[in-house]
Amino acid sequence: MAALIMKGPEVSAGMKDSLITEAAKLKPVLAIIRVGARPDDLSYERGIIKRFDSLGIKVKVHELPENISQQEFNSEFAKINSDSTNNGVLLFRPLPESLSDNFAVNTIDPKKDIDCMSPVNLAGVFAGDKESFAPCTPLAVMEMLKFYGIDLAGKNIAIVGRSLILGRPLAMLMLAENATVTICHTKTRNLQEVCKRADIIIAAAGKAKMITPVYVNENSIIVDVGINLDENNKLCGDVDFERVSPVVKAISPVPGGVGAVTTSILAKNLIKAAKR
Amino acid sequence: MAALIMKGPEVSAGMKDSLITEAAKLKPVLAIIRVGARPDDLSYERGIIKRFDSLGIKVKVHELPENISQQEFNSEFAKINSDSTNNGVLLFRPLPESLSDNFAVNTIDPKKDIDCMSPVNLAGVFAGDKESFAPCTPLAVMEMLKFYGIDLAGKNIAIVGRSLILGRPLAMLMLAENATVTICHTKTRNLQEVCKRADIIIAAAGKAKMITPVYVNENSIIVDVGINLDENNKLCGDVDFERVSPVVKAISPVPGGVGAVTTSILAKNLIKAAKR
């Protein structure tokens, strides 16, 4: 049987109606703070504006000069952070090398910190507190699994990758749904075996096409969070989709997978912030 | 071959000389804040005072009346916290039901928070930041494994229990040592199997003698963090020590295991705080 292809745009589409309804009611505002004009920041910003526009949500972009002083940056950040008309504040990181994000990380209002930059939210995610804001990508993984009706209770999950923006917070979110979670990484000895016996594999190692058919079984459910360039400079995930997709139960592609859900999650978090 | 019995007092004894040397140099001071006089608080306090006394470390106990108002408690806490002669502050929790620990948790100086009450330290542990203070019990487990020369890199660890004072922080500490960690709990479906194939089992479920010989193999290394009363009202761990110890490679008993290391860890954290 052909695998279920878990498509990000389908997940996003499924979230749309309720986000539009909530947005119309709450009129939330997102403040983006961007220093300089890095192409990847601009591309992310365009994606957010396009999605938020389709949901009727206002985005205010604060572009700060690349050569801004630390003091000026901190003061601008403080101003935007304390502006009561902003429900959420999103700082694009990393900042230019001349700047530290220390002040921003430690002073952002945890209630406006919709992508989990503050240690207060990080600690909340660690503690399993559902009021805290988790980072958007692990939330996107959870939303995708929920959309496709994949229950996590009692399931064995192999998370390949232990980063603080994906592997670790996702492990905490999945624990809260009563999954049994194994966190794997480059030093894991028997990774093939660990993945092969898992019910669900989360590929977040940042290594192009590393998950091949020997890592899976016919009932594997795979969510690919990798964003890499392959040998032809084409976007690809951590899973060798072409070879793996025919032999598993469900799989998300790259592009068109989790990445297509994150801006909807950002909107969902903003609405959660506005409800407070 | 008889199993290696990993004894807490041996681990503590192994830490003693360097703690005494450091304490003599730094003269650190621990402030304990106790509200009321609960027997378990008093027993923990006696244990700390005895250990710290043997290391030459000064302990100041602040006993507050059980019927103290929230405002008075907060103000007392703030005073002790900001007293620059205190290197570490330890608040016994839970507080009496009439009091919230919210203010204390959020205002404790993270640099004095030697048992990881502050979200700043919790976030630091989650992030794998070694400068942060982790809670004492998971650190005691790490110290015990180190003392007995058990390397964690690439090992498969089953942690049974997902609490915020043990299972979760221990998982982060072990990840930082390149172990592959599976976090298990009451909803884990195939717990026996997960434990049986692990190199190291951490029993922290809070269920008397639940780990029986079917959960282990002859190479299992088991650290028992449980503290329970058995059917005869005798202290016991989460492992059926009598039946399991003859069939594994190494095991820690209860009592006389991890619990006998935690006050030494508290002293180690206090010295770390005093060094700053």
Number of E-state strands of chain A: 11
> Largest interface: which pair?
A-B, 31 and 31 residues
- What Rg of chain A is obtained from the alpha carbons, in whole angstroms? 19 Å
Mean pLDDT of chain A: 97
The spatial strand order of the largest sheet of chain A comes to 1-11-8-7-5-6
Low-confidence stretches of chain A: none
Number of domains of chain A: 2
Helical content of chain A stands at: 40-55%
CATH superfamily name of the largest domain in chain A? Answer: NAD(P)-binding Rossmann-like Domain
**Computed structural class of chain A:** alpha/beta
* Count of helix runs of chain A: 10
Distance linking N and C termini of chain A? 46 Å
CATH topology of the largest domain in chain A: Rossmann fold
Sketch the major β-sheet of chain A.
6 strands, parallel
Proportion of beta-strand residues of chain A: 15-25%
Which of globular, elongated, flat, extended, rod-shaped describes the shape of chain A? globular
Gross CATH architecture of the largest domain in chain A:
3-Layer(aba) Sandwich
Give the gist of this structure.
With 276 residues, the first copy, chain A, is an alpha/beta fold. The first copy, chain A, contains 10 helices and 11 strands.
